[in-house]
Fold this sequence. Notes:
The protein is 54% helix and 17% strand. It contains 4 helices and 3 strands, in the order ααββαβα.
Amino acid sequence: MDDALNNKDDRGRAERRLQTQYAVTRALEESDRLRDAAPNVLQAVCESLGWEVGALWRVEREAEALRCVEIWHVPGLVISEFEEVSKQQLFKKGIGFPGHVWEKESPAWVADLAG
C-alpha cells in the first residue's frame, strides 16, 4: 500500500512540475523582457511549491549588488513594508538575507521572514 501512495505522490509532483514548467515557459515566451515575465513566472513557481511569497532578484554588475525585480504574493497577504524595502534597497554580497543567499550561491527558503 505504501508503494502505491508513493507512486501517486511522485506522479502528482511530476505533474505539478510539468505544469509549472509550462507556465514559466509560456510567460517567458510571451514577454520581451524579464520584468514583463517576472510576475507570471513567480506566480507559477510559488503556487506550485505552495509558497505565499516569492521574489526575483538580479545582479546589477556596476553596483555589484542585488536588486529586487519583482515580488509576488498570495492575494490578501499584506507585505507592503517588505515589498518597499526589497525594491528600494540594493544588497551587496553577504549583506542582508538576499546578500547572504547570493554569497552562499545556494537557494534558501524561509518559513517566516518576520520571525
